[in-house]
């Protein structure tokens, strides 16, 4: 699974921003042809994006292009021109405003046709589906099951808040008057359950006040605590905080690896349960540890503790 702790949005029509993005430590960079590009610049931005994918130094980052949504006349040409021009250097296509499984299936079919026509490996290019309205939320299970190319469900909070008439003008913040609980909890959990049921990643949407890193961190910690894999970032100042929030701490990573070692040692001795210090460990413990260990490895953490079967 590709690492998506931070997904940096970059306007596809701005060569200066695109060049700067190549030196930033976000896990994923998505070049945007949708909301970040003015209507008059959308067609020209395709060539800019193709050149950036082919000539840029992305240094192992996940490379994504967000195309325009299916209700526009730009969408099909976005996909054709970008994939024909730079498909070999593209990891995934992000489709916004997905409200029905047929949207993802349309993109899957078009990608397959282009791959076959251009000699690209069929099925290699992934899809990220952005959930941005009430219909998308209601249909999220079908969307999650819509294509083997699908890699992630992405929350689009601004459009979704408008879709349900939520009383707020600050994307990601609690609406005025909602004083108990979290107004976003159902939305986040609904997307997370659909994603996990189909082995997809779940990505939280952006926090628009880019200068308030403390508030960004607080909002990111909410979705990370639930189990989300990452969050959009709109500014370089949010990247370091996002990477930290969606990575395990060193202590948690070491502990997860020790759990895996202790449980494997126990199985080797014919026991289905083990102890790690004062902690009892079983199969459920192993599954939980696998999640944390995988995230730690993806974040580049190295072990600082080793398992001692003697318990010393």
The count of DSSP E runs of length 2 or more, i.e. the number of strands, is: 10
What is the averaged pLDDT score?
Answer: 93
Rg, Cα atoms, Å: 21 Å
Strand order of the largest sheet: 1-2-3-4-5-6-7-8
Structural class assignment: alpha/beta
Can I get a quick summary?
With 312 residues, this protein is of the alpha/beta class. It has helices at 15-21, 42-55, 75-86, 101-118, 134-138, 140-144, 157-163, 185-197, 213-226, 239-245, 250-268, 283-298, and strands spanning 6-11, 28-32, 62-66, 92-95, 126-131, 150-155, 201-204, 230-233, 274-276, 279-281.
How would you characterize the overall build of this protein?
This protein is an alpha/beta fold. Helices cover 44% and strands 15% of the residues. It contains twelve helices and ten strands. The strands form two sheets. Strands 1-2-3-4-5-6-7-8 form an eight-stranded parallel barrel, surrounded by five helices. Strands 9-10 form a two-stranded antiparallel ribbon. Helix 2 packs parallel to helix 3 and helix 11 packs across helix 12 (283-298). The protein is globular. 44% of the residues are buried. The mean pLDDT is 93.
